């Protein structure tokens, strides 16, 4: 299997920037809250704006030896942003070096950008060197042309502002990221309780690059400094490059995607993205291969332009006799306008992984990793969303993973071992991993669609059903536990032993090659503070059920599975700290076991993040209540038997009782499941 690796250190840098974004734009100035008519209610879509964008940036508007370079998404304005309530001196866009490093020796002679309102701005370009920004080019102050929302709310007008630099900046080989900054005056004018539209001068598109950030030079109490304010959007900015002799045609492949799992007789759909580093559109021909065996060539239906183009092809697998397990599909540039590719050949191919299977079983539970923080104003909606989801279906294994949204006000339920999955998954709170599928973003975590918990739950439920079809389960999980509760659990640690078993279908071990076993311990009955939904008060005693308190595996990112044929078994011993469990007050434990592809690897003594976000998914998951003494988890695959009857009843302290008693009662059902009920 070809691994796509990124150093964990790079991942941590991206995550720290995301945390800055959370602090400013989510906690202090939430764009979706202050300008809902632009983001939520109007439902501005990329499709609605794309036609305008293509019309506005024709190549013939530039000189023959010039071209524009823009981030993906930056040419399709989606909404408008600002920092009302603060006094930023500048706002800017960090553009990763990957967008322009192929043009070393070229000059940045100017730029184009969009503003929603007409205002005075002074543009500049900085080189990001370490933690500092070095000014390398500056334009004159201009009064911008406005690009307001159209009357039918279908899209923004696009009246591009163009600035030429007196002293162009020459791109150096091995350059760092650039920041395009704009000095301006931020308005904080209000009409009633809402900020006026003039408070949102910058038009932005939807960001597709986790390394790109919107920045602001603003004082939030620690002195004025540049800091990240959003990684969800990218400013509508285009660099204008100039090179003596112009820019020759040179295709750059930007990634390939396919189905995660297929049967050996299926047709494999492959999509990939490519753009022309030259100045014009060009005809492209590509080859396709499976496991480095070339199968044939095909031409793209449309010309390849200077912004990302999506190309698709179907590969018939029926004659290839592919074995069960992981395989790689590759697409490569064969010709450009009928000529052999030239220029940089290192980016002329893209690859994607898929897995061949023949047999499958039903999914037992769906893993929901819920990222929350007690200082997050919208996080109560996240809890309500998942409570609604549990009402709609009985196959949800919910782990609430707390993190510090505000470093100055740390969440008491934050678990250090969970920091890796938190940083890998999210850029804001609340967020949700749904079986760790990448739902189209630069992180695998999905945001909350709305503040309507019931609608959110319906949407999540549809996604879970789709994921079951995309990645058919290859094994059935089971768990047994023995919980030795200390005689004085408030003064002494307790001991928990959990054995996880996996019974696979034929070839499960091959299909799930490199998969890892994960074990979460969660706690119900925790209560504590939580910032309220009204944004200006605290809940003094909020219910924090399903809180992740321990990752029981040897590695926080999962343990290698020791297969015995297509089966496995592994036992874990976990120390439960004192003051954790109290059966009399309803503070009880749960276990969640799941098999997934790893999001991190150890290689040569170093820890790396898996950069292939399409292949970190969960294949199977199991949930079990942990009772005092021995517990065996059993779940009817097709759902809980609605006709199941109570065969045994236990009090909260684990003692068997013959009739209901006040407080938490634990019911053992005839279908093998256990249920917790509150008797009042």
Describe the overall structure.
This protein is mainly beta and 680 residues long. Helices cover 12% and strands 42% of the residues. The model is unreliable at 1-60 and 636-642 (pLDDT under 50). It starts with a strand and ends with a strand. Helix 5 (379-392) packs across helix 7. The protein contains eight helices and 46 strands. The longest helix is centred in the first third of the chain and has 21 residues, at 8-28. A hairpin with a 4-residue loop joins strand 14 and strand 15. The strands form twelve sheets. Strands 4, 6, 7, 8, 10, 14 and 15 form a seven-stranded antiparallel beta sheet that branches. Strands 19-25-24-21-22 form a five-stranded mixed beta sheet. Strands 32, 35, 36, 38 and 41 form a five-stranded antiparallel beta sheet that branches. The chain has four domains: 5-242, no CATH class; 251-356, Sandwich (Immunoglobulin-like), CATH 2.60.40.10; 366-639, no CATH class; 642-680, no CATH class.
Question: What keywords describe this structure?
Answer:
680 residues, mainly beta, Immunoglobulin-like, 4 domains, five-stranded mixed β-sheet, 12% helix
Please give the count of helices.
8
Number of strands: 46
- Tell me, what's the shape? globular
Strand-residue proportion:
35-45%
Main sheet makeup: 7 strands, antiparallel
Beginning-to-end CA distance, first to last residue: 56 Å
Mean pLDDT, all residues: 83
Category from helices, strands and their pairing? mainly beta
Low-confidence stretches: 1-60, 636-642
Number of domains: 4
What is Rg? 27 Å
Helix content: 10-25%
């Amino acid at each position: 299997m070809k691994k796509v690796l990124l150093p964990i250190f790079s991942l941590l840098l991206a995550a720290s920037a995301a945390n800055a974004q959370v602090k400013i734009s989510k906690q202090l100035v939430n764009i979706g809250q202050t300008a809902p008519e632009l983001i939520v209610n109007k439902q501005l879509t990329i499709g609605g704006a794309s036609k305008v964008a293509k019309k506005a940036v024709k190549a013939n508007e530039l000189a023959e030896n010039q071209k524009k370079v823009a981030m993906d998404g930056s040419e399709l304005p989606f909404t408008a942003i600002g920092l009302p309530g603060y006094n930023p001196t500048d706002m800017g866009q960090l553009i990763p070096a990957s967008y322009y490093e192929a043009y070393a020796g070229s000059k940045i002679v100017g730029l184009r950008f969009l503003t929603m309102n007409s205002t005075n701005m002074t543009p500049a370009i900085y080189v990001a060197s370490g933690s500092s920004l070095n000014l390398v080019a500056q334009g004159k102050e201009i009064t911008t042309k406005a690009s307001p929302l159209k009357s039918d709310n279908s899209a923004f007008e696009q009246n591009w502002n163009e600035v030429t630099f007196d002293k162009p900046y020459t791109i150096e080989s091995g350059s760092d990221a650039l920041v395009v900054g704009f000095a301006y005056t931020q308005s904080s004018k209000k009409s009633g309780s809402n900020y006026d539209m003039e408070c949102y001068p910058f038009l932005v598109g939807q960001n597709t690059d986790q390394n790109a950030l919107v920045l602001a030079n603003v004082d939030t109490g620690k002195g004025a400094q540049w800091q990240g304010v959003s990684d969800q959007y990218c400013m509508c900015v285009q660099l204008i490059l100039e090179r003596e002799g112009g820019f020759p045609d040179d295709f750059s492949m930007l990634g390939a995607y396919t189905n995660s799992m297929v049967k050996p007789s299926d047709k494999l759909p492959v999509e990939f993205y490519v753009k022309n580093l030259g100045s014009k559109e060009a005809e492209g021909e590509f080859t396709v291969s499976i496991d480095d065996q070339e199968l044939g060539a095909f031409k793209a239906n449309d010309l390849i332009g200077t912004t990302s183009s999506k190309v698709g092809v179907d590969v018939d697998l029926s004659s290839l006799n592919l074995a069960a397990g992981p395989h790689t599909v590759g697409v490569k540039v064969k010709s450009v306008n009928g000529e052999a590719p030239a220029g940089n050949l290192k980016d002329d191919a893209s690859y994607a992984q898929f897995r061949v299977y023949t047999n499958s079983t039903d999914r037992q539970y769906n893993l929901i990793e819920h990222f929350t923080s007690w200082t997050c104003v919208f996080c109560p909606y996240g809890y309500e969303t998942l409570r609604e989801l549990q009402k709609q279906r009985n196959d949800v294994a919910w782990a609430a993973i707390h993190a510090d949204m505000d470093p100055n006000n740390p969440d008491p339920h934050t678990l250090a071992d969970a920091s890796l999955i938190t940083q890998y998954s999210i850029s804001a709170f609340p967020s949700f991993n749904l079986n760790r599928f990448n739902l189209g973003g630069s992180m695998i975590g999905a945001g909350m669609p709305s503040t309507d918990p019931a609608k959110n739950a319906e949407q999540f439920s549809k996604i879970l059903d789709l994921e079951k079809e995309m990645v058919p389960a290859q094994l059935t999980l089971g768990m047994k536990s023995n919980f030795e509760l200390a005689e004085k659990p408030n003064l002494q640690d307790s001991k928990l032993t959990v054995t996880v078993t996996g019974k696979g279908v034929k070839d499960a071990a091959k299909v799930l090659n490199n998969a890892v076993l994960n074990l979460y311990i969660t706690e119900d009955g925790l209560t504590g503070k939580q910032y309220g939904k009204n944004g200006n008060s605290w809940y003094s005693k909020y219910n924090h059920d399903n809180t992740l308190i321990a990752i029981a595996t040897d590695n926080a990112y999962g343990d290698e599975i020791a297969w015995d044929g297509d089966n496995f078994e592994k036992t874990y011993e976990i120390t439960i700290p004192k003051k954790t469990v109290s059966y009399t007050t309803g503070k009880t434990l749960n276990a969640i076991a799941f098999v997934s592809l790893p999001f991190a690897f150890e290689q040569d003594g170093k820890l790396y993040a898996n950069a292939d976000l399409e292949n970190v998914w969960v294949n199977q998951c199991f949930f079990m209540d942990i009772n005092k003494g021995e517990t065996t988890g059993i779940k009817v695959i097709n759902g809980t038997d609605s006709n199941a009857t109570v065969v045994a009843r236990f009090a909260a302290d684990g003692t068997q009782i013959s009739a209901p008693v006040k407080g938490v009662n634990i019911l053992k059902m005839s279908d093998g499941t256990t249920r917790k009920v509150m008797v009042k």
